[in-house]
């Protein structure tokens, strides 16, 4: 296998700056359309920074490299955040940023595999990513390919029955090459996820099903990195999940304290304000 | 609901004159006078898989009832038991296809079309992945009632872009559709006949071979053109023999591929003119072969005398298959009767 290595190893850019860049690019895209799932993008930016600049193996010049770790975006509406990290990683050209959500753009509002390099699946019909990840993890094992499959899903998807079919299936087939990432921002379309179906001890649920499970602060980069390392280091033949507690709109305080909803409303003049606020918090 | 109405609901609906035991769900489709082949799907898949490493098999606790157990026994390391979980059956099949494999995913037609539809639509069809979905108990081939009778599966999948649909008639179709499905680059939904499957088509046309996307004339006839699919081609051929004794000459055009439909052959046969055109399918008259043919003909300014044989737009009763086929018009005698009535 070609040794492409992890690009993070060759970079001096800190993860904090990567996360900041992801937030900034997401805001710039949101400004283009005057809308977007910016609350989720700002919240998950640290997890994506650690994914693409610490955990994943990939080749920016060859997004379909057979040795790559697969990163599945089950939550199609988080596409704005994934485009930001794909640009940051050099998989998508930055000059396409301003086409976000436009006709003929390679970056539609909801992620689709056939549109975008680096977008492994078409998410958006929630509760499908983990099942596809199960099949890909089976396939990699059949091929003797040591790559990992990462599936990024939302806490809302914990309510989908298909998620739990996939959870059981991953254990049955001993998929130790599967790492599920759950963005737990406690917000779904109609209100709090914990007021809907995620009412229990989510980590314990996964553990009971037979997964190696962790739950960490998803906006604490050190904790996020340590969780990725721990997940990959598990020696038991079982799948792994990391539940990340994240804060919607993280990094832009005046949005963080706004009444948080699934679709955060940002007024036309607030995008530049948000960018200015973010600028103040730029890491060294 | 009042108690009285509930009591009425539970009264016997009818007392058959001749009691026929409810055929077991897994029973082979009885067909008088035809030789049978055992498990043609499983055997064909094993043969093909020996030459093609990409083929894997998955089932949601129905390998035994979809003849996939033959594959599982022959190639245990290439078979995935997915448990009673049709949603992950389909999404995992999509994942395997993404990694370069050609998964054959089996269950009952009701479960694939109803429960797993969104997963087939988004994870498989929208991505145009080579997942081959093979489903037993198509249409009215079980007496277990609506929970197991897939009377609308073709209507559901006809509306799905990228999907190819096969409704085989007999053991030849079932065996030969397998390599055709593998050769086809996209997703396929195939109805399955399992167990002891009758050999029908080669009796009437010794050189018949299944061809994906092609309709083929099995029997020529001057008075009536039956355009049929699945087991109704067998019924049409048998009805043609009955009608021949009455001097009615019936042609049978077999359409094992429902989508894409072989419009050219269908139009050419209809355009030969003068014949009563009858469609016959083991499926609801809503959204199946009949409406597909009717739409094709109208759009091409062909308006022959036209009739549709199929299942009614209703949840069907439970009972013995021969009784139900008689009741819902799929039996040989009912097909012959209907055609005569339209002449």
TrEMBL record, chain A:
<protein>
    <submittedName>
        <fullName>Transketolase</fullName>
    </submittedName>
</protein>
<dbReference type="InterPro" id="IPR029061">
    <property type="entry name" value="THDP-binding"/>
</dbReference>
<comment type="similarity">
    <text>Belongs to the transketolase family.</text>
</comment>
<dbReference type="Pfam" id="PF00456">
    <property type="entry name" value="Transketolase_N"/>
</dbReference>
<keyword id="KW-0786">Thiamine pyrophosphate</keyword>
<feature type="domain" description="Transketolase N-terminal">
    <location>
        <begin position="33"/>
        <end position="271"/>
    </location>
</feature>
<dbReference type="InterPro" id="IPR005474">
    <property type="entry name" value="Transketolase_N"/>
</dbReference>
UniProtKB/TrEMBL annotation, chain B:
<dbReference type="InterPro" id="IPR005475">
    <property type="entry name" value="Transketolase-like_Pyr-bd"/>
</dbReference>
<dbReference type="Pfam" id="PF02779">
    <property type="entry name" value="Transket_pyr"/>
</dbReference>
<dbReference type="Pfam" id="PF02780">
    <property type="entry name" value="Transketolase_C"/>
</dbReference>
<protein>
    <submittedName>
        <fullName>Transketolase family protein</fullName>
    </submittedName>
</protein>
<dbReference type="InterPro" id="IPR051157">
    <property type="entry name" value="PDH/Transketolase"/>
</dbReference>
<feature type="domain" description="Transketolase-like pyrimidine-binding">
    <location>
        <begin position="35"/>
        <end position="199"/>
    </location>
</feature>
<dbReference type="InterPro" id="IPR029061">
    <property type="entry name" value="THDP-binding"/>
</dbReference>
<dbReference type="InterPro" id="IPR033248">
    <property type="entry name" value="Transketolase_C"/>
</dbReference>
<dbReference type="InterPro" id="IPR009014">
    <property type="entry name" value="Transketo_C/PFOR_II"/>
</dbReference>
